[in-house]
Amino acid sequence: MAGDDLRFGLSALATLLAMVDPVGTVPFFLSLAPATPDGRRTVARRACLAAAGIMFFFAIVGQPLLRLLRISIPAFQIAGGVLLFLIAVDMLFARRSGARETAEEEADILARRQDVSIFPLAIPLISGPGTITAVVILVGQASADLQRLGLVAVAIVLTMLVQWLVLLGAEPLLRGLGVTGVHVSSRVMGTLLSALAVQMILDGARAAGVIG
Known about the structure:
Blueprint: H1 3-20, H2 26-32, H3 37-68, H4 73-92, H5 104-111, H6 117-126, H7 129-142, H8 146-168, H9 170-207
Helix pairs in contact: 1-7, 1-8, 1-9, 2-9, 3-6, 3-7, 3-8, 4-7, 4-9, 7-8
C-alpha cells in the first residue's frame, strides 16, 4: 500500500471516529436502552449494524445523487466542511446539536419505547447528517480508486466496531470517566473534527480553483 493511500485511510478513520464520537454516545445509550444487559447488547448490535448500513447506503448512492442534483464535489466538500465545523463547535462547548440529537420531547417518548436501536440511536446519534456528509466526501475524495474506496469501507467497519465495543462497556465506562470525562472526550474529538472540517473546506476551495 502506497504512503498516500495509507494516509488517506488513516484520515478517513480519524474523520469518522471524530464525527461519530463513540464515547459521547454513552450517556444517550444508557438513557434510552433497556436496563437489562441482554437488552442493551441487542440494542447496541442493532444500532451499530443499522448505522453501518446507513453509511454504506450513502457511500453508494451519494455520488450519483450529487450528479443528479448537479452539485460538484468541491461544492459539497465546502458545504460539508462547514456543517462538520459547526458540529465540532457544539462538541467543543458541550452543547446540544440538532444534527446529532433529538428534541427533549421526542427523547422522552422514545425512552418509553422498547426498541430505540434505529431511531434515535442509529440515526441521528451515530450516523447523523454530519457522519453521512463525511462518508460522501470521503467517497468523493477516493474517486474511482478501488483501493481507496476499500479503505473508506474498512474505516466505516472499524468505526462501527469501536462504537459497538464502547456501547457494550457503556456502564463501566461512564462510571470510570464520569460525565466530565465524557465531555472532555467529546471536546478532544471536536478539536480533531474542527481541524478536519477546515481541511475539507480548503481541499474543496482548492479543487474549485478558489485558492492555489
